[in-house]
Model the fold of this input.
Amino acid sequence: MTIAAAEPVRFEDGSAVRVRVESPAHHFRTPAYIQGHVGVVDALCGVYPNPESLAHGGDGLPRQPLYRVRLRQTDLWPEYAGNPADTLLVDVYQHWLEAA
Amino acid sequence: MTTTHVEDHVHDQPMSEVALRSVAIEALLAEKGLLTADEVQRQVDLMDRRTPADGAKVVARAWVDPDFKARLLSDTRSALGEMGIRISEDTPHLTVVENTEEVHHLVVCTLCSCYPRMLLGRPPDWYKSLAYRSRAVSDPRGVMAEFGTAVASDMQVDVLDSTADMRYLVLPRRPEGTEGMSEEELARLVTRDSMVGVSEALAP
Done:
């Protein structure tokens, strides 16, 4: 595996990102309930083989940066009754994110 | 990873559809040379050797040794190595998140049942249930209340949905009144549920 086989890291900690809305026919690991929502990059977790490729016998290349994204619970669930400061942290691969 | 292995079976009743499927897939993988029965057995053995007592020892060490705790939070793999817990490079990355007076963490995997097996062993059935997986993200405080855990309304609850290559373990808060306790005594207060975040550690 070479460095060139990885997508360059596009987002910094603190960047606002929107989760893309898509339901591809193949395996993917971006839950529907966060799609279309805006969050903030909490941390870069690393750069990992793309599970959408691995799941179908592919080589997982190019590897994708994986971010821990923080979303506000009150944004995700309009009727959320807990502390407005409550958040959800979810790991999302870069190709599912766009700048917001 | 298969949760039902062919050699674990007592063949006095028909296998379930899921068990049959798992056996068929394993046989196919072996036939194609992608996996050997030995490799499967080794992984099953490894998983069975780990229990929440492993995680509890780590938490107790972090409670008594602030330097260890700092290393555990920043470089989990090497901190665990210090305790003789080896995590192979091909297992998902483990991250430890610390509960504080301000923030309480809860771990879930909405897509399947990703779980810090390398420290806790196999997940409990409720962790894999659709009810937990769907409600932990939308009503974490309600779910925790059902486990008997009341998180103060002015505290922040952070839910971690482990959807990808990361696994999360909660470092629960050290209970009050435990100042004089040894590491071994402290470890007995650390439950599996407190390391998933649905509960606090036990009171002494």
User: Anything to note?
Assistant: Chain A has one domain: 3-99. The two ends of chain A are 32 Å apart (CA to CA).
